Amino acid sequence: MKRHNYVITALIMLMASACENERSQSINSATVIHPGYIQKDSANQMIQSFLTAQSGVGNGLKSLIMDADLIRDYLADSAIHEVKLMFAHTQSYIDSAGSGTPVGFVSGAITLVMAGVNTAGDYVFKPTELLPNRCLPCPLICPKGTASSSLLQ
User: Fold this and answer.
1) Distance (Å, rounded) from C-alpha 139 to C-alpha 135?
2) Model confidence over 108-143: pLDDT tens digits?
3) Residue 109: exposed, middle, or buried by beta-carbon count in 10 A (0-12, 13-18, 19+)?
4) Sign of torsion over alpha carbons 89, 94, 66, 122
5) Handedness of CA 37, 124, 132, 109 (dihedral sign)
6) Burial category of 75 from C-beta neighbours within 10 Å (exposed 0-12, middle 13-18, buried 19 and up)
7) Going by C-beta distance under 8 Å and a sequence separation of 6 or more, which residues neighbour residue 26?
8) Where are the extended beta strands (E) located within 47-153?
9) For the whole prediction, is pTM greater than 0.70?
């Protein structure tokens, strides 16, 4: 039985390693849940690099928060194979400053539009061409607790 467990573990690690190579990911295979995940330390390094590049930008956007129930509802459609996240100006920014005006990363002016993509590479919409877009900008509207920090704690 012990040998059987070792063989299964070795196969799982081999499959995880193959997935990592296929996606060019460098993740510790002992902790792989899905090849698209990264370690918290790597995420913090990436976030810190972005924040450092934004230093000196007044009211710079640090994060966007989306409602998890909205995402779950949208992703319940089994036709969705991938998700495309697109940067966009908020409707309030467009209404106040005009469409197409550069904004950089000003909090409250930038949002994400999420669109599901099927295996044929086509967009997947909810009825009447609806897409999730309820991103709250932080700073301006930030969560409480450890999620109020710019880095992962």
Assistant:
1) 12
2) 888 999 999 999 999 998 888 888 877 888 888 888
3) buried
4) negative
5) positive
6) middle
7) 20
8) 63-65, 82-89, 110-117, 123-124, 136-138
9) no
**Could you tell me how far CA 93 lies from the centroid of its own chain?**
23
Token duo for residue 68: 């998890």
The answer to whether the bond into 139 is cis (omega within 30° of 0) is: yes
pLDDT digits (tens, 9 = 90+) for 50-93: 888 887 766 788 889 998 999 999 999 999 999 999 999 998 88
CA distance 64 to 112: 8
* Most distant pair of Cα atoms in the chain: their distance: 68
Question: What is the residue-wise DSSP string for 56-85?
Answer: T-TTB--EEE--HHHHHHHHT-TT--EEEE
Q: What is the separation, in whole angstroms, between the first and last Cα of the chain?
A: 40
Residue 115: what residue type? A
